[in-house]
Amino acid sequence: MCGIVGYVGTNNAVPYLLEGLSKLEYRGYDSAGIAVNVNQQLQIFKAKGRLKNLETILDTSLSSVVGIGHTRWATHGAPSDVNAHPHANESQTIAVIHNGIIENYMEIKEWLTHDKHVSFKSETDSEVIAHLIDYYYEGDLLDAVYKAVDRMEGAYAIGVIAKDEPNRLVAVRKDSPLIVGLGENENFIASDIPALLKYTRNMLLIENDEFVDLTKDEVKIYNSLKQPVKRDIYEVTWDIDSAEKEGFEHFTLKEIFEQPKGVKETILRRLNAKDEIVLEGVHLTKEILEGINKVYIVACGTAYHAGLVGRRAIEQFAKIPVECDVASEFRYRDPFVDEHTLFIAVSQSGETLDTLQSLREAKRKGARVLSIVNVVGSSVARESDDLLYTWAGPEIGVASTKAYTTQLTAFYLLALFMGQLNGKLSDARYHEVIKELKLMPEKIERVLAKSPEIQKLAASQFNNEKVFFMGRGIDCDLAYEGSLKLKEISYINSFAIAAGELKHGTIALIEDDTFIVALASQSNLYDKMVSNIKEVKARGAHVFAIAKEGSEQLEKTADEVFYVPNTMDELVSILAVIPTQLLAYYVSALRGNDVDKPRNLAKSVTVE
Ligand code: G6P
Questions:
Q1: Contact, 327 vs 357, CB < 8 A?
Q2: pLDDT grade, residue 241 (50/70/90)?
Q3: Which end of the chain is less congested by CB atoms within 10 angstroms, N or C?
Q4: Which of 308, 349, 398, 407 to mutate to test the pocket of ligand 1 (most atoms within 8 A of CB)?
Q5: Is residue 534's pLDDT more than 70?
Q6: 244-438 and 451-590: same fold?
Q7: How far is CA 104 from CA 28, 125, 250, 361, 552, in A?
Q8: What is the DSSP letter of 198?
């Protein structure tokens, strides 16, 4: 989704803006632009397409001590130069960048057009913001932004500069991410930490309905009543390298290879010397858990797929019934949620709008809200009663990989923790699972060491347009995730199915050389999977099976078998998903796609 960045200081803002925007590219965008104030004249440059298109139209002598920049992911109006941000009022005295959606923009636009005779240039909802601020502007930008925001409904993170205030940057947020970076003689705004990490580690996390007034020397935060707000500095501890490729060709590949580290961090930070699980942000007690009769897991995309595995883990270890739903469905179906429900939101970014709104809906209905989130201080994190961070580090590739495996890890910890708390899990079983869980980082390393096997397979299949993923039990959940990964970055129309459902229709599609990824990691379902593999083989399919070591008999049935280290059926998901991630990656790279920034996709979906 759109990314915003802003600078006010003593240096030339332009390189800061471009660098910041390049770090926000991962969010997904289709046009970009900047606005600066040169000798009390606002100058705006915008270009459809990648950042390099913007760079080519920039005047190299351009210099300004204040500026705003934007990467746009089109919602209202096609990707084009004119729809790109920043937007300005007619006399170009106010320039605005916006991430989010102004829901009542039509009403405001009509009022401005008919009553105030304002003419609009773009089809965007965002342009109304510039005209509205101009309408209210009487020499104090912050004041005008307050008045304009008062008329706006929807979600926004907005950055504004004014021609007549060349040393000031004003920003405001509601439901779209916004952070402030504190420098020396310079301050910044951005949608996300990586955009600013090159310049500062000291951040202020801006909350909903807060306004920020920035100059080079000072950052003031105000609430909606214009009262000053104090905010502690959040010091970013992870390294700039985490947001760099470090020799990998793509972020996606680097992040796949970072999974041992992410999983290790997620586990080890939660285990004490006696191997007891200590979940700092989770305040569930035995009494609270006794009052819970249902768990609802809600998320989008890959996080939803992690939820599917989480459902099995909680049912298995804590014996509490679990429902799992995609957030865009949950929100609108008046779900059975009450004060006896534990609602679990799963989100890498913590900013996905449907997930956030589902969380609010569940809260309204009285549920206790626990979230599994990667981005520290994000909206989902802040609005939850209980919080379990995944320690994956920043995920830049749009296709989620390390966030997924750390979400699975977090679910296992949570399920074990709940099982111990409510007495449904014996000590012996608990320690058996924990012991195995601690081995996962090393076992992931072993899977990754075999990536050349997947590279070879990808080289033989990357042009195959008919791809199916199938599995049973947890493997079915993994099939959904494997297929999504392939779709996202290779653009192949792949399909995932519960293997037992094949015969009820889908088998009609199997023909010579259909490529089937068959996940067969579950011991109790192994024989059933072998039968399913035989069924598709008999119809000409090419089968790539993923199974645990010790399943060598599969070689007689499948064309290729990838073995993951032996482990418990409950935990194997963390290992078995990795070959599917690698497959999607290598196929995408071989097809010459933009792996890290696949077409039409956004990293963080902050609109409905
Ligand atoms: C987008 C991303 C996916 C992600 C989904 C949910 O669609 O491209 O990779 O799984 O949003 O995002 P979240 O940040 O809530 O996990």
A1: yes
A2: low
A3: C
A4: 349
A5: yes
A6: yes
A7: 25, 9, 40, 22, 61
A8: T
Residue 195 structure tokens: 């955009």
Q: What pLDDT is stored for residue 607 in this prediction?
A: 76
Distances (CA, A) of 479 to 210, 484, 485, 497: 42, 8, 10, 7
Residues forming beta bridges with residue 94, ordered by sequence position: 162
Check if 348 has its Cβ closer than 6 Å to any atom of ligand 1: yes
Q: Which of 2.40.50.430, 3.40.1360.10, 3.40.50.10490, 3.40.50.450 is the CATH number of 451-590?
A: 3.40.50.10490
Test site for ligand 1: of 191, 352, 396, most ligand atoms within 8 A of the Cβ = 352
Q: Look at the block and give the residue holding tokens 């196929």.
A: 587
C-beta separation of 95 from 161 below 8 A? yes
CA quadruple 140, 143, 145, 147: dihedral, nearest 10:
-140
pLDDT digit string, tens, across residues 169-188: 999 999 888 999 999 999 99
Residues in the chain: 608
Given a cut of 80, whether residue 12 has pLDDT beyond it is yes
The reported pTM is 0.80
